[in-house]
Amino acid sequence: MKDKYTQPDGSWQTEQEQIQAALEAHFSRKPRLTPPLKRWEEDLPESQKEQAVPGQLIRVTEINKIWMEIPRYENIMWGGAWVGFISTLIPAFIAFYMSVNLIFLPGFHYSDIYDLFFLMTLWIGGLLILSICFFNLKMALLVPRDQPIRFNRKRQKVYLFDYQRKWNPWAKWPATVKVFDWADIHGEISYEVDRYDQGFRLYCAVCKPGTTEVIERFILSRALSHPEPQRRLWSHCCQYMQHKPVVADPLYPGRPDSWKPRKSMHWPEEIDRESTTAPEA
User: Fold this and answer.
1) pLDDT of 102
2) Order of strands, sheet of 198-207, starting from the edge strand that comes earlier in the sequence
């Protein structure tokens, strides 16, 4: 049986309930950053302060005395991209094939408004279907499954690999690397309800130095069913950047079941060297 303690009002409370109450009091219930995070759930302790919970990684690619890399896997059914590509390629081919045959029909005339309208409908419909087809092909072949983050505690820098996927398949989908000062980063948790990422998500908010004004936000860990692993992950990152001893073993040692091999992402050579070395090196 759990030990019980008497409260000021004479009621009884277990030790576990006391610990949980202290944790709930520690994590703020009102957003302190501006603008507030959409679907905000709680702010986490400041990165330079003592952490309230033990630190633990969820997944890790590399961790040593200088730098640490955390993977970020997207919860997307990548096989569905191939299904979408194949299922839209055939209708697109049929639409363009019909438009070519229509032009060479003996009774076809460009001056006939009905013939011209039918031809334009085939072309526009074929182009839309082809765009969807090309979008699925880029999703299957080009989008990195893992968009990692590196923490360099010697430089006190955070390196974010970001692939900017767009709805327009004909536009360029650039891969960028952003570098932030760890001192300007704050931890936040949101509660997500979308189709592919439901649960508690861990965000990093980058603020103007010395303020609570947010410049940019990025996802550190995608949604989980309970906030506690996200709190522990943030705590681990803070303790690691504070040069404190940390546990290197993650909660999940392998890749997620939904991960599939793909064209690998590559850190730019200069960033790769900087993010894995100490300043004196």
Assistant:
1) 74
2) 40-43, 185-193, 198-207, 214-224
